[in-house]
């Protein structure tokens, strides 16, 4: 595990230097002063008063995520996607990597209740939000109705797209986009099934919508 | 591969000024909103950025409909705009173009401003093993004689025939939408979306008239009768979740059996969203009949310059246009 207990502030403090400099570079023209060293320190104090520049984070940074109701503190690079964070850093391998380009939907998770592709989400940008993965759907041993419906209707063959299909299906029903077969097909189109289990997936989603 | 992207630094801008200044100061920096285009092309090694400037904390939200028109903050998500009751009712072509785009997941993520700046789906642009003048200026354009079935028949040049990929942009160009742009000095300017995009010419890598550091902050659309009676029709290889082969954004104001004003633009066929004023002019004063729609649609393709594999778009564009017009008066 790459988690630790460092606070985000520690990483922010480490990168104060460069960000302050870049802020001054930006405001130099605006303030109309040449940043000779003695003036620079005054300007720096002034700049800090006017508007603290946001830190520029690089290398391993602190990232705090809320996943399935649990706080997770991690050390990650800014380029780490939410998908890789889940699978490689948190052992939450229910969320699948299919295309890794937002084309297949296997990586679908919910952020603040909305379905998104975790492969095109940076972990650092998912901070402060509620993330729900396939592992967060069941209540203990009690499966989510969508999981039950996928079992009942045999909504899969190889099963690789299934977590994404289920996460998308749950959102699709909640959005009110599964009221007819045609509507559910259209609004489930962001989840590709290579095995072609679509009729059974559709049956599962529609059943849950009808029970609504 | 676990981490396909080159490493980069990240900052979350606290203000528009901070964001635009940071972008101007670093030529290798990029703004990130939803990230659906940017991270995709960075993973594909099409673009490399050393710094991503997260603009999601900026207050660029709001969907406001007033007597003069519609104003949409650039950070509004495609899904929220596409299903907004005021947009659905007064600007159906905008709603329909959004809901015909991408997938529900991507629409929840992608911002309106980012949608307008999305990259072409030309296969040569997306595959770094090939030359591409848009990706590597001066390297060549294999699409001219290669696999060009999905590519443009309007606005092409010997340097580039890549199709503009946005559905939204086609609807917005038809309705004469404008963009508000803010620069690092905090100054704003307003640009018609139709003038925002550049034809490829000999510099296909320069796609817009954005100045260094400039950020799209809002989209405005004038209110009009032809906006309320409008439609977006998208023809594609699959029923859903595919880019357009051809699309048509149309709006008509019909009074007493006569067309008073018309707005027509085509997608999937141009290097930029392709408005066709000749068709609009031909429709005004006529009755909204299929014969008149056919005659007008023929004018849309007079300037077409198809390549070997996309000749079918000349006929398909006309049929798509006629069907969209029939739909709007049905």
UniProtKB/TrEMBL annotation, chain A:
Alphabetized InterPro entries for the sequence: 2Fe-2S-bd, 2Fe-2S-bd_dom_sf, 2Fe-2S_ferredoxin-like_sf, 2Fe-2S_ferredoxin-type, 2Fe2S_fd_BS, Aldehyde_Oxdr_Iron-Sulfur, Beta-grasp_dom_sf, TAT_signal
PROSITE patterns per UniProt: 2FE2S_FER_1 (PS00197), 2FE2S_FER_2 (PS51085), TAT (PS51318)
Start and end residues of each 2Fe-2S ferredoxin-type domain: 61-137
Region (Disordered): 1-21
Pfam families per the UniProt record, alphabetical: Fer2, Fer2_2
Keyword terms of this UniProt record: Iron, Metal-binding, Oxidoreductase
Protein name: 2Fe-2S ferredoxin-type domain-containing protein
Species name: Hymenobacter ginsengisoli
Automatic annotation (TrEMBL), chain B:
SMART domains reported for this sequence: CO_deh_flav_C (SM01092)
Domain FAD-binding PCMH-type: 3-226
PANTHER family xref list: OXIDOREDUCTASE (PTHR42659:SF1), XANTHINE DEHYDROGENASE SUBUNIT C-RELATED (PTHR42659)
Keywords linked to the UniProt accession: FAD, Flavoprotein
Lineage: Bacteria, Pseudomonadati, Bacteroidota, Cytophagia, Cytophagales
Any matching Pfam family: CO_deh_flav_C
SUPFAM superfamilies recorded: CO dehydrogenase flavoprotein C-terminal domain-like (SSF55447), FAD-binding/transporter-associated domain-like (SSF56176)
Protein name: Xanthine dehydrogenase family protein subunit M
Keyword Flavoprotein belongs to the record: yes
């Amino acid at each position: 595990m790459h988690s630790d207990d460092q606070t985000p502030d520690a990483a922010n403090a480490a990168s104060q230097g460069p960000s302050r400099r870049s802020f001054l570079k930006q405001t130099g023209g605006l303030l109309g002063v040449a940043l000779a060293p003695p003036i620079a320190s005054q300007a720096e104090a002034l700049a800090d008063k006017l508007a603290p520049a946001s830190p520029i984070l690089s290398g391993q940074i602190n990232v705090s995520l809320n996943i399935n109701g649990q706080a997770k503190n991690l050390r990650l690079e800014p380029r780490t996607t939410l998908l890789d964070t889940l699978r490689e850093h948190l052992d939450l391998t229910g969320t699948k990597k299919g295309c890794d380009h937002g084309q297949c939907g296997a990586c679908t998770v919910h952020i603040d209740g909305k379905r998104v592709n975790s492969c095109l989400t940076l972990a650092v940008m998912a901070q402060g939000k509620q993330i729900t993965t396939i592992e967060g759907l069941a209540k203990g041993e009690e499966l989510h109705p969508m999981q039950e419906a996928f079992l009942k209707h045999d909504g899969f063959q190889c099963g690789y797209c299934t977590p994404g299909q289920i996460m998308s299906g749950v959102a699709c029903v909640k959005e009110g986009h599964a009221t007819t077969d045609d509507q559910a097909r259209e609004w489930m189109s962001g989840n590709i099934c290579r095995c072609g289990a679509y009729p059974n997936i559709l049956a599962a989603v529609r059943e849950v919508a009808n029970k609504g | 591969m676990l981490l396909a992207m080159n490493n980069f630094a990240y900052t979350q801008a606290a203000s528009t000024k901070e964001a635009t200044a940071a972008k101007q100061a670093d030529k290798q920096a990029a703004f990130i909103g939803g990230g659906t285009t940017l991270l995709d092309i960075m993973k594909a090694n099409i673009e490399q950025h050393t710094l991503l400037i997260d603009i999601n904390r900026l207050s660029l939200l709001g969907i406001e409909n007033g007597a003069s028109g519609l104003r949409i903050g650039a950070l509004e998500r495609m899904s929220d705009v596409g299903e907004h009751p005021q947009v659905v009712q007064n600007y159906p072509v905008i709603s329909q173009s959004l809901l015909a785009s991408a997938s529900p997941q991507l629409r929840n993520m992608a911002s309106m401003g980012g949608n307008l700046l999305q990259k072409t789906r030309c296969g040569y642009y997306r595959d770094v093993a090939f030359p591409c003048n848009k990706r590597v200026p001066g390297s060549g354009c294999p699409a001219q004689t290669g696999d060009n079935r999905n590519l443009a028949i309007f606005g092409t040049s010997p340097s580039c025939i890549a199709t503009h990929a946005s559905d939204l942009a086609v609807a917005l160009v038809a309705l004469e939408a404008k963009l508000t742009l803010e620069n690092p000095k905090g100054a704003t300017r307003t640009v018609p979306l139709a003038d925002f995009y550049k034809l490829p010419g000999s510099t296909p890598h320069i796609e817009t008239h954005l100045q260094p550091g400039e950020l799209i902050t809002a989209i405005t659309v004038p209110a009009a009768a032809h906006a309320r009676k409008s439609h977006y029709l998208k023809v594609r290889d699959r029923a859903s979740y595919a880019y357009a082969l051809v699309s048509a954004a149309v709006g008509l104001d019909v009074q007493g059996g006569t067309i008073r004003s018309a707005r027509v633009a085509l997608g999937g066929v141009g290097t930029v969203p392709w408005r066709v004023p000749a068709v609009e002019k031909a429709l005004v004063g006529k009755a909204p009949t299929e014969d008149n729609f056919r005659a007008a649609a023929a004018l849309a393709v007079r300037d077409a310059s198809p390549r070997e594999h996309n000749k079918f778009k000349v006929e398909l564009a006309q049929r798509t246009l006629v069907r969209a017009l029939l739909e709007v008066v049905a």
